[in-house]
Amino acid sequence: MEVKKFLALGDSFTEGVGDVDLGRPNQVRGWADRVAEVLCTQGDWEYANLAVRGKKIGQVINQQLDQGLSMKPDLVSIYAGGNDILRPTADLDALMRGYEGIVRRFNEAGSTVLLFTGFDTVESPLFSKTRPRTAIYNEKVREIADAHGAIIADYWRWREFSDVRYWAVDRLHMNELGHGLMASKVLEVLAEHQVTDDDWSQLIQAPVLPELAVNSRGEKLKAELGWAREHLAPWIKRRLTGTSSGDTLSAKYPQYLQLSAATN
């Protein structure tokens, strides 16, 4: 049987930030690795991941598109735009024209394209103001998917991700439980659209959520101050200086490989 190829493009969401694994490249695992582990173990698949944290749509186009096309994937996942949405200003119409260009190129090359809507930040005190932009982004994603036959993993509508226990301490990325749930969701979508022969989502162990912590007002204040010092301040500094946490990093898996849970 011919080996199929799964390629992942994008930013920190797809790189796997928040799902710490010190034995892997860039020290993260993530939903895409978890999906690939199932595909490679249960079917004839290979996997590559070009996503790097901090990348904006223009950078994905300039740094990942040509390489990705040369790799001729059967399935390509694309998620970018979150870092653009978080900037003080963003021309979403122009950005999404570029995004559509990525999808069109892969569609014309014969790849099945998997897109994501953005997460609904309605319950996030820090990021709720970006919700209108994300809603516009999502509608553009749906239009692009309709125009080019892409399939959608509808992050916006998966309300279970609003549970804080699925999120890392930086409050911006999913933790290992969130990435595990996302992997299961993606496998369901792939099976629904017959990209995979079977629904292997049940092979992702269901996350066991810890009890919600009940903290005093003093403990909550201490946690808020610690989070602001360790995560918010560096994030703001990077925005002001035009730097990114991914500036010194390379893609985790720039060449196809057979991935397993034990692969480093």
UniProtKB/TrEMBL annotation:
CDD domains from the entry? Answer: SGNH_hydrolase_like_1
Keyword set includes Hydrolase = yes
Q: Which domain of life is it from?
A: Bacteria
Give every SGNH hydrolase-type esterase domain span: 8-180
Pfam families on file: Lipase_GDSL_2
EC number(s): the record gives: 3.1.-.-
What are the alphabetically sorted keywords of the record? Hydrolase
Keyword ATP-binding (UniProt): no
Give, as one word, the top-level EC class: hydrolase
- Alphabetized GO MF terms: hydrolase activity
Q: Could you identify this protein by its name?
A: SGNH/GDSL hydrolase family protein
Per the UniProt entry, what species is this protein from, by scientific name? Glutamicibacter ectropisis
